[in-house]
Amino acid sequence: MAFFFSSILTRRTLAGLKFDLQGTAALRSASFTTQATIQIKKCDVHRLDEAPSTQVLLTRDEALQYYLTMQTIRSLELKTKQLFDEMIIQGACHLYAGQEACAVGIEAAIKPTDHLITSYRTHGFAFTRSGSLRAIMAELAGRKTGLSKGRGGSMHMYSKNFCGGCAALGSPQVPLGAGLALACKYQKTDELSVCLYGDGAVNQGQVAETMNMAALWKLPVIFVCENNKYALCTPVERGSVNTNFYTRGDVIPGLRADGMDILCVREATRFASDHCRSGKGPIILELQTYRYFAHYAGDNEDRYRSAEEVDEVRRNRDPISQFEALIINNNMASTKELRQIDEQIKKDIEEATQFAIQSPEPPVEELCNHIYSNCAPQDVRGINPSTKLKSVS
Fold first, then answer.
1. If you ran DSSP here, which 8-state letter would residue 367 be given?
2. Distances in Å between the alpha carbon of 341 and those of 27, 39, 122, 260?
3. What is d(CA 177, CA 168) in angstroms, rounded to the nearest whole number?
4. Whole-number Cα distances in Å, 33 to 9, 154, 236, 315
5. How confident is the model at residue 1 (pLDDT cuts 50, 70, 90)?
6. CA 261 to CA 110: how far, in whole Å?
7. pTM, 2 dp
8. Neighbours of 90 (CB within 10 A)
9. Is pLDDT at 2 greater than 50 in this prediction?
10. CB neighbours of 9 closer than 8 A, spacing ≥ 6?
């Protein structure tokens, strides 16, 4: 049922990555375990009679694909931070490093035709949805070849069935996510909407209003709270009386999973998607995760958390390191094979970076294009950005 990744594996490549996941002839002939049963943590549940299974099946192909995708997102974010520090990337920049298991686990459990909308931490889903490192890097650098033609930057990337990120706290994407679910129900498709928001958005009025409507209309939407503990700079305990965010939908069922464990995320999302597709209406999924960098590049995170705390999470709960250990311990791959994947990722990140840097910026005469879906008007409200305005005497 891993719809998204199983279809990609047949093509041998993901997002332009040239590494062959089936490996060389020598690696293929090695006596690796082809599949294993893995014990995962139990999910907390709210208004549910059942919970996701704690015994899950993982194949070697899935393991390599998940590792590749998480490691690519991590490398993408590290390069993004470097380019931001060098002022090649400008404007707001919110990094997803540390939260990779959330994006990859969710995608492993839903269909590529399902709809997805998130907040301002968009890079991970922009990659899983678009499959183009070049277009992501170019967008970050504000270039014409970017996912949003250089107009969206870090927070506003879009792709097929990915409605991108939203820069305000919960109010744009949560109602829009429910709207996508309403469209699925209206059109009588078997699709659903995955709507992501952070722990800082849970107390927004629009979130509560949207959940009420979604419950009334039994919309097929998974409300996903990526709880990375601090919102912008406030610990969750100081901002919410009830920090059990998976229960905040009242009558809407909910579950809480370890967002640092890709298999926990996958199984929780699979459970939630089955719930929605069966016509039972919305469900809340809280993923307990952690961001490694400040809320945004340039934020002074020393005010609200210590470097020792971040280091402790990196050492003991890192989603990629944990998953790498699981792969090795279950004899699904060798350390050498994983290092080969790492090396290829670095090459592809560097290639995408050079592509972005060498790409042109969007010309000013195209500034008003792509505002309307059915045309590319040069005039918006009577104004053309390339025309010099007359001075008023």
1. T
2. 13, 26, 24, 21
3. 14
4. 18, 39, 41, 27
5. very low
6. 17
7. 0.90
8. 13
9. no
10. 21, 61, 65
